[in-house]
Amino acid sequence: MKVIRGTIVSEGEGGVYGERMMNGCRVWDPHRSKLPAAILNGAPLDLTADMRVLYMGAANGTTVSHVADYVETIYAIEFAPRPMQDLIEVARRRPNIVPIMADVNRPEVYGCFVELVDMIYQDVAQPNQADILRKNLPFLKDGGIAVLMLKARSVDVRKPTEEIAEETCAALREMGLTILWTGTLNPYHRDHMAILCMKE
């Protein structure tokens, strides 16, 4: 990951969502995107030019566009029609983005479009976040990394974020995943935790 004066940036064409530029690079705002927030909070994560990524919960393509600046290919899954329109426009300017309109609970629908990937990035605010990852694990290579952005209030509004994170980690271990790192996304995103795990 490229850092300029303590700020995470990506090298790519600007003007995707009005982002600032710094030394010819796009500023990756941790208040707008959870991935740089996790990295700034200590997540041991890097993106490299030979990586293929499955991104679930692509939304308008803000984070997708930055990830695409780093990696070889990104399969971007989004279900809602309105943000999908924005995602398609982002993909027009970055040919390594493959936009797919589908439900992440039904990976069999888009399985024919997705190769084995080095990383799964999941940012889907649904109660069954761990189960969604389980369903999509067949796309992840052995030794690959899964990144789960856990929105605690989408799982259970009655429990504290830390308790939900512990329960989620236990579920991930039952899937055979090794937990590499967990951490809060404060102060950038409230009630969110990032969980990094590896498929052995």
Automatic annotation (TrEMBL):
Leader sequence segment: none
Binding site for S-adenosyl-L-methionine: T62, T63, E78, F79, D123, V124, A125, Q126
Subunit structure: Interacts with nop5. Component of box C/D small ribonucleoprotein (sRNP) particles that contain rpl7ae, FlpA and nop5, plus a guide RNA.
GO molecular function: histone H2AQ104 methyltransferase activity; RNA binding; rRNA methyltransferase activity
Gene Ontology biological-process annotations: box C/D sno(s)RNA 3'-end processing; tRNA processing
SMART domains according to UniProt: Fibrillarin
Record protein name field: Fibrillarin-like rRNA/tRNA 2'-O-methyltransferase
Protein task: Involved in pre-rRNA and tRNA processing. Utilizes the methyl donor S-adenosyl-L-methionine to catalyze the site-specific 2'-hydroxyl methylation of ribose moieties in rRNA and tRNA. Site specificity is provided by a guide RNA that base pairs with the substrate. Methylation occurs at a characteristic distance from the sequence involved in base pairing with the guide RNA.
EC assignment: 2.1.1.-
Family statement drawn from the similarity comment of this UniProt entry: Belongs to the methyltransferase superfamily. Fibrillarin family.
NCBIfam families: PRK04266.1-2 (NF003276)
InterPro entries linked: Fibrillarin, SAM-dependent_MTases_sf
Keywords: Methyltransferase, RNA-binding, rRNA processing, Transferase, tRNA processing
A Pfam cross-reference name: Fibrillarin
Keyword match tRNA processing: yes
